[in-house]
Amino acid sequence: MNPLILTIILMTVFLGTMIVMASSHWLMIWIGFEMNLLAIIPILMKKYNPRAMEASTKYFLTQATASMLLMMAIIINLMHSGQWTITKVFNPTASIIMTLALAMKLGLTPFHFWVPEVTQGISLTSGLILLTWQKLAPMSILYQISPSINLNILLTMAVLSILVGGWGGLNQTQLRKIMAYSSIAHMGWMTAILVYNPTLTMLNMLIYIMMTLTMFMLFIHSSSTTTLSLSHTWNKAPLITTLILITLLSMGGLPPLSGFMPKWMIIQELTKNSSIILPTLMAIMALLNLYFYTRLTYSTSLTMFPSTNNMKMKWQFETKQITLLPPLIIASSLLLPLTPMLSILD
Amino acid sequence: MMTYIVFILSVIFVIGFVGFSSKPSPIYGGLVLIVSGGVGCGIIMNFGGSFLGLMVFLIYLGGMLVVFGYTTAMATEQYPEVWVSNATVMGVFLLGLLMEVMLVLYVLKSEEVGVVFKFSSVGDWAIYDIGNSGVFSEEIMGVAALYRYGAWVVVVTGWSLLVGVLVILEVTRGD
């Protein structure tokens, strides 16, 4: 793409999310969502193959439907409260419709069907932007309306998302689909704690973005999109193999890595609110996620996966530069001792 | 009839929207959009907004819809779909019409327009008030307010339109 156009479009994606996060008028928030959607379409369609076109179309259709639902909820809110400022949503109908619309934007169950298909059809960099940056705007709106969200609907969607994210990722060999299902499960964890303690949602979002960013950077570095091609990294760059191991285990939520921090805090907050069965179920279902992460580490770092002999002696080309990899690795694996710092939040 | 003119025009407006939402060929969608645009202009004019109605006709129908009509004429197929051409389009159109008829009957029977048009605590839409001066019409002051208090909205929407054009050019480049 022409560099000037690419700059303008990336700036508009950034501006759209910023407008959503910084506005106090519901109409401006809707405008921000639409601007974000419009500008990310050419980024998703960077490669001109039919798969990418189909993925962009699916993304556009689902997000536009969600924006329309959001607009309807905004108008119902306007009708019943007479004002446009974003505070509590006063009417329960408007609140439910708004929750469903934002769940569609995030990819929570039962609106999760677009996430694997769209993530699979686009390039790795576009998938990175899709799974990290695009989650910020809907989550910020959910954070702002969190006092008035219907708990039953949100918790149902969260638990189902964790289930679907775990089970759906089990049979996958394509890395982008694995990351998509991982995103669905993490969104489920984030929205489960939203009504009880929204600060933890933001913490989970932060840690999730760091870990997903790291994973995608590692995939981009080794240009691998399947488990098979990821299993050849021991030959190309052995250090990447170790980093994949650490980051994947962090994503699975194992202590002493930083991925444990959000899960621990969420389970603690849920038990403080006298719900025992729910966090137990959530923790057990996170094991499904951990299973396919460890399967990836098994084929990548822990064993030399069977390959043909010419794969074992690869040419050493010039290595690609990965942006910001060292800080990302540290952020996604070593932050657990900083947990007491959470007391400064909120 | 003149007392109900806004209601009648709104009904025709909604029927027009149903007409193109049932997705016949874009040519017929554009035709219905012209009717809906004209009728919408009539609705605004009944509230005293003659300037805005003129804007709808000039810019929307005479600018954007003309461009739309030309591009659709270039890309049209030999036998464009009409509303009666297949069961899907006709079914959706009839369903939309049925829902509109039921809504109209409900509003007429219950003698209140509250179900479609009710704003609870704010009695009047206008927060920007020109204070009953009989000299300036309200809608011109509204347009002026758009460029004064709503300057950020103008910037954002202008930027969105520019990016919209760039995005469409980028998407249809198909290199």
Automatic annotation (TrEMBL), chain A:
Keyword field: Electron transport, Membrane, Mitochondrion, Mitochondrion inner membrane, NAD, Respiratory chain, Translocase, Transmembrane, Transmembrane helix, Transport, Ubiquinone
Record-linked InterPro entries: Complex_I_Subunit_2 (IPR050175), NADH_DH_su2_C (IPR010933), NADH_UbQ_OxRdtase_chain2 (IPR003917), ND/Mrp_TM (IPR001750)
Keyword Kinase attached: no
UniProt EC number: 7.1.1.2
Catalytic activity: a ubiquinone + NADH + 5 H(+)(in) = a ubiquinol + NAD(+) + 4 H(+)(out)
Main location: mitochondrion
Domain NADH:quinone oxidoreductase/Mrp antiporter transmembrane: 23-285
Protein's name in the database: NADH-ubiquinone oxidoreductase chain 2
Species lineage: Eukaryota, Metazoa, Chordata, Craniata, Vertebrata
Encoding gene per record: ND2
TrEMBL record, chain B:
Keywords: Electron transport, Membrane, Mitochondrion, NAD, Respiratory chain, Translocase, Transmembrane, Transmembrane helix, Transport, Ubiquinone
Membrane association type: Multi-pass membrane protein
UniProt GO cellular component terms: mitochondrial membrane
Reaction catalyzed: a ubiquinone + NADH + 5 H(+)(in) = a ubiquinol + NAD(+) + 4 H(+)(out)
Keyword Mitochondrion listed: yes
Annotated family: Belongs to the complex I subunit 6 family.
Protein name: NADH-ubiquinone oxidoreductase chain 6
Species name: Equus asinus (Donkey)
